Amino acid sequence: MKVVAAMSGGVDSAVAAARAVEAGHDVTGVHLALSRNPASYRSGARGCCTIEDSNDARRAADVIGIPFYVWDLSDRFHEDVVEDFMDEYAAGRTPNPCLRCNEKIKFAAVLDRALALGFDAVATGHYAQLRTGADGLIEMHRAADHAKDQSYVLGVLDQQQLRHSLFPLGDTDKPAVRREAEARGLLVADKPDSHDICFVADGDNAGWLREKLGDRAPNHGGDIVDATTGETVGSHTGTYGFTIGQRRGLRLGVPAADGKPRFVLDIEPVSGTVTVGPRERLAVDHVSGIRPRWCGTVPDRVEGTVQLRAHGAEHRAVVLVAGDRVEIDLLDPAEGIAPGQAAVIYDGTRVVGSATIASTRSVDGAA
Amino acid sequence: MNQPLVYLDHAATTPMLPVAVEAMTRQLTGVGNASSLHASGRGARRVVEESRETIARVIGARPGDVVFTSGGTESDNLALKGIFWARRAEDPRRTRILATAVEHHAVLDPLHWLAESDGAEVELLPVSSEGVLDLDALRDSIARDPASVALVSVMWANNEVGSLQPIADVVAIAAEHQVPVHTDAVQALGQVPVDFAASGVDALTFTGHKVGGPYGVGALVVRRDLAVSALVHGGGQERDIRSGTLDVPAIASLAAAVEESVKHQHEHAVRVAALRDDLVRRVIEVVPDAHLHGAPAGPLRLPGNAHIGFPGCEGDSLLMLLDARGIECSTGSACSAGVPQPSHVLLAMGCDPDQARHSLRFSLGHTTTPADIDAVVEAIGPVVERARAARAR
């Protein structure tokens, strides 16, 4: 096959590209330029999208012996990922831009362009496994290395996208990938893993949102209210600085009566009120999802598990699907579930699909 | 790869001429710092001075006008900063530098730096839809306040679209006000007739690797009586305005390449222009809405330049698809981290950003054969079709 290997400049995508070559594919390395101003993205060895990362990707392609190009997708990325990220926070939700990028950029804009240019597939360094099921459909499973598994952020891919995807690292653990990079002479072998959000330069989400949202922010401050007493216990400088389940950085002036830590329970962007309360009230046993994406056949009902945030735990669940609505009963209650995040639905290790969390219901009955 | 490479990016760099390789390798085995006083040093110095004389003779300069540098970018920086600083030191009113909007980045970026960091007032003058300087704009700009103009810099030929600039008119207009003129002739030397003295310019940039010489060596030809401030300080080797141990093998090779390419300039231009015209005509036969950017083929355009717009395509898709077929060309635009930006040259010529991204520059040179043209004509139809499909997504 003719394969585009998306190369971020990191160790995973470099080894994935090398493995695609070894599997006999005709591979072309492509680095995605996602920032309109590369200097503003995370610098050094931490993320993707900087000029250094582009150079690292180029050198890896040289070592592997494949052609290399940079594709400028900065406009699409800004429109589909960065703008969406800001809108979601402005609306009091907590988006996952990595999922969005996979859905709209890596396995959409890039894949479409690659197919049009005569390629057959896109290979990435994601940790997930593809198998052909008994029904002939491509199934996506969790990676062999559960600690590195990235099937959660790929849960938005549909059958068409999966048919044109390659994840050559799915059967390998990360230390082995690093050893392999070293053995192959790839200089990125010891480059640190990327974390956080690539376009938020210093990891200061709230500061970035404050600067970028400007007048689009629903508020630049408001009260923090204790759910138990109804008392105002502090103030804040913008609801977009909070996420459900957050404990740190609340700077509450009034200690809780029971002396226990308080957590963000609710964010109300219109009034600007952030509600806090004890940990017990974070527990939810029902999640409603919208915008479902299915990897294969659309199910009516799934008895399996769901994962409700990146690197989060699996919860046993019963999932009922009705058109664009997905209702999830959690047999194991979950804590700190934020609207805007994805609920990815699994049957064993197989990804069934995903939905965007619209609302949750607390164990104690509150919506 | 088993297919022969079709190299059509000679404006980026062109293969070294055999005489230049021979001149260089002959000197590589010798020893001698051209500034040393012993026999080996004198030998090295002799090679440098003979090279200087050869270059002066074939480009119509005096040997003392030729200042060796590391190439085009350094020569442009030396001319712009060095002449600006010296002229302003003579008269503090001289704060303006005039140039065209289509200069190479080796001119534009020093000018931006002078404007941002050193108080220069830089005016980038408009060009026609063919990329040729608007002489009335130059005339008006100087006349507005002649005493404030430190320098005029106008390239001899544009590196992207190949249009020649009206250097004789620029010199005549500047001379009325005793304003010196610098020209970046990197693309012109060896392609069109270039005579330093006859042109009347005060300073001229050229570089080795565009005329069949080595990388990393070039010269600023600058009239001896024009003051130039130094950029690189040290041993003062080149007229005290450029320091650094002279690269004897590179200079010998540069002289051989300049001599050879200027000697054969006319027959080279006739041969290459015919191939270029054939390429353009046959590409447009295959892709009817393709069109040549810049001056029409003829005496006002570089003979080897075919800058072609392909509506509905991204230049970088075309480039990648041709590269995969062993055909090497350029989108002609500057890159940052390999990201193609819309060309400032095409934007200045009035193209919109889409048009500025849909082009390819094929630049022909001394190794180009009719078979190279056939290969492009054969590939271009399916490649454009593919690139259009990718663009439509």
Notable characteristics:
heterodimer, A: 367 residues, Rossmann fold, SH3 type barrels, Elongation Factor Tu (Ef-tu), domain 3, 3 domains, six-stranded antiparallel barrel, five-stranded parallel beta sheet, 7 helices, B: alpha/beta, Aspartate Aminotransferase, domain 1, Aspartate Aminotransferase, domain 2, 2 domains, seven-stranded mixed beta sheet, three-stranded antiparallel beta sheet, 13 helices
Question: Overview of this structure, please?
Answer:
The complex is a heterodimer of chains A (367) and B (393). Chain A is α/β, with parallel strands linked by helices. Chain A folds into three domains: 2-190, Rossmann fold (3-Layer(aba) Sandwich), CATH 3.40.50.620; 216-281, SH3 type barrels (Roll); 282-362, Beta Barrel (Elongation Factor Tu (Ef-tu), domain 3), CATH 2.40.30.10. Helices cover 24% and strands 31% of the residues of chain A. Chain A contains seven helices and 17 strands. In chain A, the strands form four sheets. In chain A, strands 12-15-14-13-16-17 form a six-stranded antiparallel barrel. Chain A has a five-stranded parallel sheet with strand order 3-2-1-4-7, with helices on both faces. In chain A, a hairpin with a 4-residue loop joins β10 and β11. The longest helix of chain A is centred in the first third of the chain and has 20 residues, at 97-116. Chain A is globular, with a radius of gyration of 21 Å. Chain B has 393 residues and is an alpha/beta fold. Chain B folds into two domains: 6-15 and 264-392, Aspartate Aminotransferase, domain 1, CATH 3.90.1150.10; 18-263, Aspartate Aminotransferase, domain 2, CATH 3.40.640. Helices cover 43% and strands 13% of the residues of chain B. Chain B has 13 helices and 14 strands. Chain B has a seven-stranded mixed sheet, with helices on both faces. A three-stranded antiparallel sheet of chain B has the order 9-10-14. A two-stranded parallel ribbon of chain B has the order 1-11. In chain B, α1 runs antiparallel to α8 (248-263), α3 (72-90) packs parallel to α4 (105-118) and α5 (135-144) runs parallel beside α6 (167-175). The longest helix of chain B is centred in the C-terminal third of the chain and has 23 residues, at 370-392. The chains are: A alpha/beta (367), B alpha/beta (393).
